[in-house]
Amino acid sequence: MTLLAIESSCDETSAAIIQDGRILSNIISSQWVHQQFGGVVPELSARAHLRWITGITEACFTEAGITKHSLTAIAVTYGPGLMGPLLVGVNFAKSLAYSLDIPVIPVNHIESHLYANFLDGNHPGLPFIGLIVSGGHTLIVRVDEGFVYRVLGQTRDDAAGEAFDKIAKMLGLGYPGGPQVDKLAKTGNPHFVELPRPMIHSGDFDFSFSGLKTAVKIFLNSNKELASTHINDVCASVQDAITDVLVTKTKKAAIAHGIKDIVIAGGVSANSRLRSAFNELSEKQGYRIFLPPPVLSTDNAAMVGLLAELKSANQTLQPNLELSPVPNLVI
User: Fold this and answer.
1) pTM
2) Cα–Cα distances in Å, from 69 out to 83, 93, 104, 113?
3) End-to-end alpha-carbon separation of the chain, Å?
4) Which of 242, 251, 249, 245 is nearest to 280 (CA)?
């Protein structure tokens, strides 16, 4: 099976060729135009996708060494995401598939993040606990055989990645802020400022990060000079607080369900402190932790194609409609 995969849910335009479980090419173009606004502007994102999607797809075929006539199907992210950018990807996939007389396989963006860990033979057994943590989503799911998901908990307000980005903006670090916080935190003191761990003892698996943002803002307003000279320490304190909540809640979910395999997915899974904390959990308590390579942690088309291929092999081609809200796009 040879698949072209398209991902355009937010601010990365990506195309990939997947053939029998192998990545032949995976090209990702990030949209830096949003930096000046401190966040993604949907209209600008849609226009950028429209400008680049054809060229990126052509480059994808060149790198893979195949032509479009070798394709078996086209996989495309249908949601969740920004409506304009999603429409660009979906309509591009539909048009190309129509011209080649091959099917389109719709893929849920959140679901595909989980399966970025299935690109080699070392993947989790079923059932497993999945933590999906990104700029727009933070949730814990139980994954059973047959692509069956049960959402155990999710954020009640901001996602963890959103908290990273907005706190980075408070610190004047620009967008995207998560990688900047991670970089500075490596030389900082995580105990410099004691920040709250929202809902860490709530008795459920839900999250909340709005209060953490407020606590950071109060600290910065009251300690402007101190914060400016200890920005690395502030970043380390923020990162430690977010990581502590994510790891604690995920571990509690694994204990409650008697599951030892844990998959971490989404853009925030590239965070170095989060990765080291979960690796420590594995070493000390025997959990099997699965983390995708950093290039497959953020939005990319390879994960979209891999999930489509897995579902095709299992004859489960319909997207999972219960995993997350889905925009009204017709595939």
Assistant:
1) 0.89
2) 29, 14, 15, 28
3) 21
4) 251
- Domain covering 124-291 in this structure, CATH number: 3.30.420.40
Between CA 127 and CA 225 the distance in angstroms is: 50
Beta strand pairing status for 288-290 and 261-265?
A: parallel
Tally the residues of the chain: 331
Residue 227's region, left for phi above 0, alpha for psi from -120 to 50, else beta, is: alpha
8 Å CB contact between 122 and 98? no
Q: Do domains 2-115+296-313 and 124-291 have the same CATH topology?
A: yes
Coil/strand/helix, residue 310: helix
- Cα–Cα distance list, 239 to 50, 132, 166, 192, 209 (Å): 35, 17, 13, 12, 12
Domain 2-115+296-313 has CATH 3.30.420.40: yes
Q: Taking a C-beta distance cutoff of 8 angstroms, is the pair 164, 177 a contact? A: yes
φ and ψ at 68, to 5 degrees? -65, -20
DSSP state for residue 207 in the 8-state scheme? B
Candidates 274, 273, 304, 317; CA nearest to 14 is 304
Average pLDDT over residues 9-21: 93
Segment 13-26 mean pLDDT: 95
Domain boundary assignment for the chain = 2-115+296-313, 124-291
Three-class secondary structure of residue 9 per DSSP: coil
pLDDT-derived band of residue 327, with 50, 70 and 90 as boundaries?
A: very low
Average pLDDT, the chain: 90
Is 273 a residue whose pLDDT tops 70? yes
